[in-house]
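Our preliminary data section would be incomplete without showing what the modeling component actually yields. Below, a chain of 419 amino acids is followed by its predicted structure, encoded as tokens that our downstream tools consume directly.
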Amino acid sequence: MDAVVLAAGKGTRMCSELPKVLHEVLGKPVLGYVLETLAEAGVKQPRVVIGYQADLVRRFLKEHDAVPVLQRDQKGTGHAVMMAGTALGQAQGTVLVWPGDMPLVKLETLKRFFEAHRETRAHASVLSCVQTDPAGYGRIVREDGKFAAIREELEASPEERRIREVNTGIYLFDKKRLFEALEKVGSDNRKGEYYLTDTIEILRRCGYYVEAFPLASAEEGQGINSQKDLSLVTQKINQREIEKHQDRGVTFVAPEQTFVAPDVKIGKGTVVNPWCFIESGVTIGAKCQIGPFAKLRKGTVIGAENIIGSFVEVNRTRTGKQVFAKHLAYLGDAVIGDGTNIGAGTITANFDGKKKWQTRIGKKVFIGSNTVLVAPVHVPDGVKTGAGSVVIPKTRMKKGYVVVGVPAKLIQKRKRKVS
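Predicted structure:
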């Protein structure tokens, strides 16, 4: 199956210079959600129609198996699909059309839509949903119960505006019939644009079978046209992610005050306190305590039974089992061994202005409050640092040493217990 993703518009109501589809939801551009769902559905190399800030969108597409198609002048959704005609080639079959600002449609819904389209052998199918407030959406017009047309709100009659079944903007077309219909689409409307929605009425008049399937939930039908819409979509995706982890035995003390990006792994029995932000790609082990007010950034792996407490930021860091960092710490580009305690105010100074360096901390290390570890540095097993110490790469340390001062120096070796 071929696919065309519509991503050319500026999104005027976003009041932003950034293309609408590149606005981020929990660290990922909106367009990324659409492309990932398509990939999960088995759609390869979707054609992505780009226009406004085309170079920015093209740069993002390099991270995905997608083919950019330029729409130099934004003349509507029908015109956008026409621009993709050459890129789709001559091969016949089915083509999926999906707006790049619709990230909430679930894979399961998409699969049911595909199945319904195949079973009915429709020449064109529309994925629809029922909205309590349909304002702003194209309405699904039915005559004698049969799908007849999609009416854009600006063109709709007062009676049609009362219809609650609306168009999500996601279609399946017989490719040949789609482009035949597009040739007949005009721009005699209030916007002076070529509406893709007009193809439905054209195909029906030509005797082809069209269908609308209300398989999407109202939530899935939420597109993004404004900053308010963006915040609503962010809330919904965040809620989905948290519910997924709750089903796997993770406790969220205040889900509405916690932010968890997609592609996060959290072990059973872990408790996440309020006002935590967990970025994509983070892994947290079982039976941990996270937060409140903790930030776990991409590339972080937290071992089992850790406590990552209040105002602790962890970035590209791997911790072992039972590591405690309970208060006010920054741990960046670090590897920390089992049983280590990180005192309040500890910082791994990982950036020298040009390059990021790693800090390695061994097992059962006690890092005193307000210690600064100037990377690259290795703190061996069992070492203690005094409060306010500055540990630099030249600091001489061996297992069991106690170091203090600025820069930190050895004050004693830990005495071995006599058995």
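The chain has nine helices and 34 strands. The domain at 2-213 is CATH 3.90.550.10 (Spore Coat Polysaccharide Biosynthesis Protein SpsA; Chain A). Preliminary results of this kind motivate Aim 1 of the renewal.
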